[in-house]
Design brief:
Two copies of one chain form a homodimer. Chain A has 491 residues and is α+β, with helices and mostly antiparallel strands. In chain A, 36% of the residues lie in helices and 27% in strands. Strand 5 of chain A pairs antiparallel with strand 5 of chain B.
Chain lengths: 491, 491
């Protein structure tokens, strides 16, 4: 089974696609650019979603739901937003079909043309701020801390499963505040929630930083981002949080009466992560044998495979396995007993390896005699024999160890793929030959940024929040710079 | 605050709308027929969704996600389905907007016209069966037991919050089976899951039955339904489960190799409930003071309101309240301490009554002296003084009692609103004057059903699965009938 996967060294993007499809995470659909998220992929997404949802609620947010459709005119209200979002999107123009009078199936009923076209939401700032206008009168109505889990559509020309699809699932937080300080604090709080989630749950190291002006969200005053590094040396933007200033409040005329009795525009943030995280998860940990999952996000953490020649052996093994499973369940470990009788153990091993199950336990007649089990960990592929009486404790510790090890391994990779450069020649050489994160001085202008992008395909991923001040010179123009930025080619 | 609600006797549908809006459940949006589900309404929906999701998983189902868009031609494949579903729906014809050359905002880019129009899913049988074709080869791939939580769009001309909106949230199960018996069993299993959920969680009695041919889902061989009775004597279809036979398998050419080595079409079911359940919940239990919620679905089960004149009193009360809340939390009870200092107790009482919080506890200085608290239940509005030391046990029992009482009350209402009639004159009189469920003999023909509908606006809600055989004569044609059907006017 593992043989079916293209290796990373041979063709990295084919490797990625093979894993997504063959581990049963997702597949393309009959609709251009839209994917089907298959049960196994969706089960992982559910675990991510549930944990994020808990973290949002712990930080005081509530969920709500706003319409899928947005009137076209709403996009024209915020000048920068229209440029960024109103272009490549799905446009609903009619609301009825009818039978073709020539008997050829069904056709659009031209009598049912909408007066104003509706856009399938690419993001919901406009419709939400249009709603907030009716919810907010005074400072007593603030803050509003709302999140929405939803599908959105952006008509992408080149799509890749999870990483860039026309329709994707996401959450979008939209908050309203009485003061600028509060809104900035909220935007920073949420990028840090994303960073904690990435590190602790996805076992994925991320840089937390600010976007440069030209990489900002359309309509934002400031965009915070978490940036991860994939195994091919390309960066992946994994989540963003925006301080929107009063831009949307002004566009939708949302004012409040402040404590001093004056009318003031409301301050805003928005923040989101999407099913793109699934792509990041796959690319951060997986290997040439298939998917590798951090235990905290694995739908099944431990799979048991019986090795037997006849029903009697199977029955003895099953008794032992069920006892062990019950012990593991009481510790909160999820397990699966793969006793399908139409597949051989070798096939099962390969399949669970492909699907990234963190721990595999094989038990055969000899193990029954000796009171042992063979325990294999997916991250390192190492195996060990463990006494059955210690199996539960061993596995609980092992799952924790795998979670830590995956993070450590990814962090080491990122650290060894991050270099400081002080000349444009060196910059070009690193980007072309090695990839990874490049820390370089930049004069702060969009022109220089654009030139670098054109010549190297590298963009400024972020200026990390914890990047120390350091006097230097822009690698392109030689103009003074106070601080390095992080450059990389990106997904 | 309660004064703002129209009474049921004055105007039932205005009463409903007042509750939905004023209890903060939902509101209309800027997009025709689309609603905004507000945080409080969404929190109730989340509780319903989470419990249904657990019940689906316990019965072996997995979640997945399929595209929002369906190619227009897919609807023409299944003859009955196209008639039922492909008409009033949102049609995407273009994928790009551009700046108006005359400088007036943005316009649809006519160069970006889709070759084939896409329909925003009104239901997903077609796109899912088109996918299943690639997943199913042999009996080993069956059954497929998949559910999807999604938004769908049906372009309704007359909309009402939750009950009938252009966009709504729902779940749709889509299963594939090797045999007819298995598929029928699945369709029946799921209607019974819905019935249990309605009774045990929503405290809403439902009839479980089959639809007549003309009320069947477009493309189904058999449609099962749960039907509830609202306080105005109208029926509400609260969930349906369909045995689809091999109709969609034939339309999308989905065959499997059976155990005998022969190619056979796959058998199918689909089943769904939607945010319409929110409307059913509101109309089943609420009264002229506002929303009434069954404790199992209430986001906050107990609200504490302090009665105080100064900070010292408040501080003493707060200490007692926090101790009581901790005790309740340890029993799994959700609470809220309404210590907002800019609202008076009377205002808070009315607000929580409006929002249907099942139990309210008020504590003032006298209660502190005596070690008591005033406990009010929302369903009957009765109050009692309870010793603080017994408060937790009392409330745990009270929540259970409220849950039972709401079901009992609704069941009594339904029973007193269900009558047997044996003549068409009596039928017309009951439907016109009293409403409710009417059990009558019917000759089994769509013609008679259509006549009754035209003359009385009553439709056959279902033929209950447990309806006993009984020889009788059709109330309209006098032709023989084996069994009564349930008629009612309906939402």
């Amino acid at each position: 089974m593992a043989k079916e996967i293209t290796s990373r060294s041979e063709n990295y993007s084919q490797w990625y696609n093979d894993i997504v499809v063959k581990a049963g995470l997702a597949d393309y659909s009959a609709v251009r650019g839209c994917m089907v998220i298959k049960p196994y992929g969706y089960a992982i997404w559910e675990k991510m979603r549930d944990q994020l949802d808990r973290m949002f609620k712990e930080t005081g947010h509530q969920n709500a739901y706003f319409p899928l459709f947005i009137p076209k005119s709403f996009f024209s209200r915020e000048a920068a937003h229209v440029e960024g979002f109103a272009k490549e999107c799905a446009v609903v123009t009619h609301y009825r079909l009818k039978n073709d009078p020539n008997g050829k199936g069904i056709i659009v009923d031209e009598d049912a043309k909408l007066e104003e076209e509706l856009i399938v939401r690419p993001t919901s700032e406009t419709i939400i701020w249009n709603t907030y206008k009716t919810w907010i009168q005074s400072y007593r109505d603030l803050p509003i801390l709302i999140n929405q889990w939803a599908n959105v559509v952006r008509w992408e020309m080149r799509t890749r499963l999870f990483l860039r699809t026309a329709e994707f699932l996401w959450q979008e937080g939209h908050t309203a505040h009485a003061t600028m300080d509060e809104a900035v604090e909220e935007a920073e709080r949420m990028i840090n929630v994303y960073a904690s989630f990435a590190r602790e749950w996805m076992a994925m190291p991320v840089l937390v930083g600010r976007k440069s002006e030209s990489e900002r969200f359309a309509g934002a005053v400031d965009t915070y981002t978490i940036e991860a590094l994939m195994q091919d040396g390309k960066a992946l933007q994994a989540g963003t949080s925006h301080f929107l200033g009063q831009n949307f409040a002004k566009a939708f005329d949302v004012k409040f009466l402040n404590k001093e009795g004056q009318q003031e525009y409301v301050w805003a943030t928005s923040w989101g992560v999407s099913t793109r995280l699934m792509g990041a998860l796959v690319m951060t940990h997986s290997d040439d044998n298939g998917l590798v999952l951090p235990p905290k996000l694995a739908p099944t953490q431990v799979v048991f495979v019986p090795i037997y020649k006849n029903d009697e052996e199977l029955s003895t093994i099953t008794q032992v396995v069920e006892k062990l499973r019950a012990q593991l369940h009481s510790k909160g470990v999820t397990t699966y007993y793969d006793n399908r009788d139409n597949y051989k153990p070798g096939f099962k091993f390969a399949e669970h390896e492909m699907r990234g199950v963190p721990v595999r336990v094989a038990i055969g007649p000899k193990d029954i005699e000796k009171g042992t089990a063979e325990v294999a960990r997916r991250d390192t592929l190492q195996k060990q024999f463990v006494a059955q009486e210690h199996l539960t404790d061993t596995i609980v510790a092992l799952l924790d160890d795998i979670q830590q090890n995956l993070y450590k391994r990814a962090l080491e990779f990122r650290e060894s793929s991050t270099v400081k450069v002080d000349s444009y020649d060196e910059f070009k050489k690193v980007i072309a030959e090695k990839g990874g994160f490049v820390m370089a001085h930049w004069d702060g202008t969009p022109e220089t940024e654009a030139l670098i992008k054109e010549e190297t395909k590298a963009t400024i991923r972020c200026i990390p929040l914890d990047m120390p001040e350091e006097d230097g010179k822009c690698i392109v123009t030689g103009k003074p710079s106070k601080r390095r930025a992080i450059f990389a080619q990106a997904y």
